[in-house]
Design goal:
alpha+beta; Arc Repressor Mutant, subunit A; 2 domains; about 50% helix
């Protein structure tokens, strides 16, 4: 585990003597289309955006971005992949892929956007060691109550338009919680080939891009050729490296991603079980049924019946 702190007094000399990261705030309302490409670029600005309602669109983001749905869900399109982020999730995009975010009708969501240099400055201020670039890795995380509250606090400070120790503390506190989430990757990074931490993080970044691609596109007919292209590895090298780091083959992880998607569809939609199977990337319903029961201990029909029974009791 890393040692992180949100205490302003514990920041590094580099933070104390550098120009501070500035906070900017913007609220996006129903029907707003905001083109991030038109924003003036600053190496020391953390922009906090609050989006709400259907038709609230943010597109053109090409800087590292944290996206957090506070209510409802957000459709996130990044390069050739699309994912749905639900309340309780957080996604960090590494940037460079012209990300687009569209909220659901009742959604409330936040986007925290900053150039890599600003994220670097925040991370260096709270980490006891130098983290090789990239300092944050693209991933979907569980956004617990603490990090959601820290994000809301950050938005309030940004809205006040004041540069103070309080706003600096809000930025550093959020960055510390974000690094705590990413510390879960440390054991996997140690398994990556490479003589230096920077080389191992570079390998893990490639593998993480593959995992994110699986997560967003697991309903498609994917294979090792597509995964190798995303990682910029040969198929054989990808399989060996992936298995050494995650302890599973890419295909096994893909199946697990599909089953997680199927469980969410069973619980949150009215699709038939056959439709759930197809929407999750399974062409054979029998194969889907076996895999689902093996993974979750009961059939998809039993899961749905239990959910419906709990709704009936509540009513």
């Amino acid at each position: 585990m890393h040692a992180y702190t949100s205490d302003r007094s514990a920041t590094t000399e580099a933070w104390k003597h550098s120009k501070p990261v500035r906070l900017e705030f913007e609220k996006l309302m129903h029907g707003t289309i905001n083109n991030a490409v038109d924003w003036p670029c600053s190496e020391r600005t953390l922009r906090v955006l609050l989006g709400s309602g259907r038709g609230c669109v943010l597109h053109g983001m090409d800087m590292p971005t944290v996206l957090i749905p506070l209510r409802g869900w957000v459709k996130l399109t990044e390069s050739e992949s699309t994912r749905i982020l639900h309340t309780g999730q957080l996604f960090f995009s590494e940037g460079g892929n012209h990300v687009q975010a569209i909220g659901s009708g009742d959604s409330l969501w936040m986007a925290l956007i900053a150039p890599a240099s600003a994220w670097r400055q925040l991370v260096d201020a709270i980490s006891e060691r130098t983290i090789p670039a990239p300092v944050l890795l693209p991933a979907t995380h569980v956004a617990n109550r603490a990090i959601r509250r820290a994000a809301v606090r950050l938005a309030r400070e940004a809205r006040n338009h004041t540069a103070s120790r309080k706003s600096e503390g809000a930025m550093l506190g959020f960055a510390a919680l974000l690094l705590d989430l990413q510390s879960a990757f440390d054991p996997l990074i140690r398994r990556c080939p490479g003589r230096t931490l920077g080389q191992r993080r570079g390998v893990f970044l490639r593998l993480q891009r593959v995992c994110n691609y699986m997560e967003s596109s697991n309903d498609l007919d994917l294979g090792i050729t597509e995964f190798a292209r995303v990682a910029n590895y040969s198929p054989g090298h990808l399989i060996r490296t992936f298995n050494a780091v995650y302890g599973k083959t890419p295909h096994a992880v893909l199946i697990d991603q599909r089953l997680k998607r199927a469980l969410r569809l069973v619980n949150d939609t009215e699709l038939s079980i056959t439709e759930v199977a197809h929407a999750s990337g399974f062409e054979d319903r029998c194969a889907f049924a076996r895999s689902f029961k093996r993974r979750f201990g009961e059939t998809a029909s039993a899961v749905r019946e239990r959910r419906l029974a709990s709704i009936s009791v509540c009513e």
